[in-house]
Amino acid sequence: MNISRNWLSRYVTIDCDLETLCDKLTMAGIEVEAVESAGTVPAGVVTGRILTRKPHPDSDHMSVCTVDIGGGTVLQIVCGAPNCDAGCVVPVATIGTVFHTPEGDFKIKKSKLRGVESQGMMCSEKELGLSENHEGLMILDPATELGQPVDRLFPGDTRIEIEVTPNRPDWLSMWGVARDVSCLLGTEAKLPEITIPACDKPAPGLVTVEAPDLCTRYIGRLIRNVKIGPSPEWIQKSLESIGLRPINNVVDVTNFVMMELGQPLHAFDLAKLKEGRVIARRAKSGEKITTLDGKTLTLEPRHLVIADAEKPMALAGVMGGEYSGVTEETTDVLLESAVFFSSNIRATSRELGISSDSSYRYERGVDWDMAELASKRAAQLILETAGGELGSEAVDVNTGRPAEKVIPCRFDRVRALIGTQVSNERIVEIFRTLHLKVDDVTGSGCVVTAPLFRLDLEREADLIEEVARIDGLDRIPEIAVTGKICGSIREDAYLPLETLRNKIISLGFYECLHYSTVNRESALSDSRFTESDLIRLKNPISQELAIMRPSLLGEMLGTIERNISRRNLTLKLFETGKAFCRNPELFPEERFELCLALTGLKHPEQYSEELKAQYDFFDMKGALESLFELMNTKRYRFVPVEDGRFRKGCAAEIQIEGKKAGAFGELAPSLVKGWRTTYPVFVAQLDMAVLLAADHGVGYYVPFSLFPATSRDVAFVAPTGLTHADVLEFIRKAKPADLESVRLFDIFEKDGRKSMAYQLTFRNRERTLTDAEVNARFDKLREKLKNELKVELR
Hints:
Elements: E1 2-4, H1 5-8, H2 18-27, E2 31-38, E3 45-55, E4 63-68, E5 74-79, E6 89-93, E7 98-101, E8 104-107, E9 111-113, E10 116-118, E11 121-122, H3 150-153, E12 157-163, H4 174-185, E13 207-209, E14 215-224, H5 233-241, H6 249-261, E15 265-269, E16 278-282, E17 288-290, E18 296-298, E19 304-307, E20 312-315, E21 319-320, E22 333-340, H7 342-352, H8 357-364, H9 370-386, E23 389-390, E24 395-398, E25 405-410, H10 411-418, H11 424-433, E26 437-439, E27 445-450, H12 460-471, H13 495-506, E28 510-511, E29 517-518, H14 520-523, E30 535-536, E31 547-548, H15 553-565, E32 571-580, E33 590-599, H16 617-630, E34 636-640, E35 646-656, E36 659-667, E37 681-687, H17 688-693, E38 710-719, H18 724-734, E39 739-750, E40 753-762, H19 771-788, E41 792-793
Parallel strand pairs: 13-16, 28-32
Antiparallel strand pairs: 1-12, 2-12, 3-4, 3-6, 4-5, 6-11, 7-8, 9-10, 14-22, 14-23, 14-24, 15-22, 16-19, 17-18, 19-20, 20-21, 25-27, 26-27, 29-31, 30-31, 32-33, 33-37, 34-35, 35-36, 36-37, 38-40, 38-41, 39-40
Helix pairs in contact: 5-6, 6-9, 7-8, 10-12, 11-12
């Protein structure tokens, strides 16, 4: 939205400089985005009278003139304008005058043009930035005093571009901004007097509204015997000051009033309206209209049109039709001022891809009361600029004036919210200066009636915001934020659970969420529980959800089966949640449990032999080890076990710090019976209380070593009862210096004995180890394995 300072000054006195005005507007919510000077005559341009004109001796089109600029000073100026006749008073740029152009600054200097000295420049309107006219010199009134600065005769203007928020459509007009400026500067805002001749001639059938839900008010007014021509200079300059192009007197008036009052208008050529009337109706399906910009549109009943007796003449609230507008042959005008349903105009504009100044205002909502005032103002200006007379009384078809919002306001609440001790009188003054109606003023509050142009005022907080922005947001005191020390994040009961979830997700598992209530079959799928262990609900949602789940296994099995039945065969799933048990010898009544599931192909994205690799028991074991490593859990081990949930010989118990934490393995055939899969399914169930209660130590960042590692291999024959976990625990307790990692790379059994081979990696973080140092550490560990584990070294 562009506003002109000179235009704005017609309605409110602006007694401050431009910088102060822009600052106050921005602080009041009317954000100033850009400021541009327009029509500012450079200093050094004065009035002068051409005394003589002679042809240039070396040019066919230039003249040599003598110019009196007052004070006894006569200049010789070479000029190429066709109208530099003797006796004309013109603007003269004296030596030293600087013109600011888009191409750069241009300074007037004494020079010679084809051998003749020139002591200045006589100017056109375009050169002075007053208009686009450059056909000749700007001719001033012959009575103009000589030698006076031209910028006094043509004071410059300033175009201010403002950002209007969607909730303040009243700022889309000069008058709307003037109301706020008057409040900010403490001056009175006043519209020009609007009077039109009385006319009581009826116009039956002139306006018909067939869609009152989309057109709540339509005012039509006839003006006859107008003479179409250029607008007066003051209207043209007003429109140009905000970037609009003058067209003719009638059209310019509708644009002028729209920018002045915020109410879009349209002038129809009455002769082009069949039967001389208009109808506000819904478009017929497939009906077409060609708009003023030359686009042909196909309409539907959801679009509102202004039609004559035969066809659409305008797309209501958006743009007039190509053949409805005023031309040089127009003599009679039907002036439209209407209120359309904003949501319909917004939808029509977006759907058809047409936007205009009118639609921009209608989309946000216009003042119901302003439609009548704008109609009168436009009629007044048309009669003044185009002549003619009123052809009828105003025809006003409407659905009734909307109710205004009545909002109680408490003075103490105003002060409490904005934090300043603004007085009751100042609060009331602000409301009234903003043209809000204030009643029932008491010592504690008042009642404010929001006029229809303030669509944004709905509640007390909105009124308080008005007080804050007008009284000055800079007056609101700064209050230091006080912070209270609460419990440490480590005391957050949910943090360990969330941390565990994130670590499992980082291993590539996808989280499942199931109901806490299950059916009997799902509850008893976990072989650890019997009927007496189950907790049944007295008022279940349904019999299928009548039992509190004793573990997470049953619902996880259901999810796996559903995925497999839809041929989603590769799965990495997990769930954390509460389980419930009636038997205290098994578990507490309520506990947190973790369930992981693994099945399918390891590398479904690969090809050849790698594509055939399937998840196995050791992949689940590796996933658990990775989880324990991420949680910095050091003391854990896996012990073979027989468990009804898992296939015989393919299960292990998980022990953490000597406590039973859960079990994992390949699901028993009875649990996967009927599943259409060729891959084994592996599941792990852990008690989260044991897992989270373990000593996780304190994690510190350890930088990568800059020095190389050295490896040694050790192989031995041991009894079959010696497990890999036993070996790792023994080496951990032995604490060999600089030992970085231990990896089992070979194992086989024969004749009741077990052969195991390990790779030991040594690295020092501060220096490179020598072979002698590594060999000494390695030999010492070998001796301990031989003597204390009773193994036979190979």
